[in-house]
Structures are given as structure tokens and as C-alpha cells.
Write a structure and sequence with these properties.
Helices cover 77% and strands 0% of the residues. The chain has 142 residues and is mainly alpha-helical. It has one domain. Helix 1 packs antiparallel against helix 3. The protein is elongated and about 55 Å long.
């Protein structure tokens, strides 16, 4: 049996993104279930399915974007700048959402939503390039 198979970069980078997305889902579940249950249930568009898709899709797309930018000189820096910018833009736009009438609940909802966006942005910005560059680390996982 040949264990020396090297996975092509085109399949490896999206899988790195998917692995990063799984890590993000776990952290987002911890954040979601540690918040006040009244807020978690009042904000009905933040549910389990939204957490899963909202964590996996950006990370997987980030892995594919990182693959294409890895072919460009300074592509990693460009990727980090673009993903950081998207994270900050998402945080800014999240504060424009008005969902609840109670100011206290509204503030808690924004805190929950912002923490989840920061988590997705952090893992997408830093973990995708880190895991994509460390073949030894990801060889047994992916």
C-alpha cells in the first residue's frame, strides 16, 4: 500500500477550509449555548442550521480563495487583508440590524452575533493560511 500519496492542492485547500469551518462550528456552538437562552431563542435567525452554514461556507470559500491567491506573489498577505476586511465589514453591518424591541435584549443579541462573526473571521483569516502551509500537521487529518 502506498502511503506517500500527495493530495493535489486544489482539493487540499478547500478541505483545509472545511476543517477550519468545523473548528469554527464547535466554537460557535459553545458561544451560542453559553449565552442567555432567552436571547438565543428570541433571535430566531441564529439557530443551529444558521450556525453550521454560517461557519462552514465562509471557511470553505476562504480555502478556495486562498488556493487561487497562493499562486500570486504575496497572495497570503492579500488573502489576510481581504478576509480581515470582510470580517470588519460584517461586524459593522451587523450593528445595523434591528431585530428586537427590548434594548437590553438587542444589545445581547448584537454581542452574540458579533462574537460569532469574529470567530468565523478569526479562523478564516488566520487558520486557513496556517493549516494550508503546514502539510505535516494536516496530512493525517485531511
Amino acid at each position: 500500500m502506498n502511503d506517500d500519496f500527495e493530495q493535489p492542492a486544489l482539493s487540499r485547500y478547500p478541505l483545509v477550509g472545511l476543517l477550519t469551518g468545523f473548528m469554527t462550528v464547535i466554537i460557535n456552538f459553545i458561544i451560542y449555548f453559553s449565552f442567555d437562552p432567552a436571547i438565543s431563542h428570541a433571535a430566531s435567525f441564529i439557530n443551529i442550521v444558521t450556525l453550521i452554514y454560517g461557519s462552514l461556507v465562509p471557511a470553505t470559500i476562504g480555502g478556495m480563495l486562498y488556493y487561487f491567491l497562493s499562486m500570486v506573489k504575496k497572495g497570503r498577505i492579500i488573502y489576510i487583508i481581504v478576509f480581515s476586511g470582510l470580517t470588519f465589514l460584517s461586524i459593522y453591518l451587523s450593528f445595523r440590524i434591528r431585530w428586537l424591541n427590548d434594548p437590553k435584549a438587542e444589545r445581547q443579541f448584537h454581542e452574540l452575533f458579533m462574537l460569532m462573526i469574529i470567530n468565523v473571521g478569526f479562523f478564516g483569516t488566520l487558520m486557513v493560511p496556517f493549516l494550508a502551509r503546514n502539510k505535516k500537521l494536516t496530512a493525517k487529518i485531511i
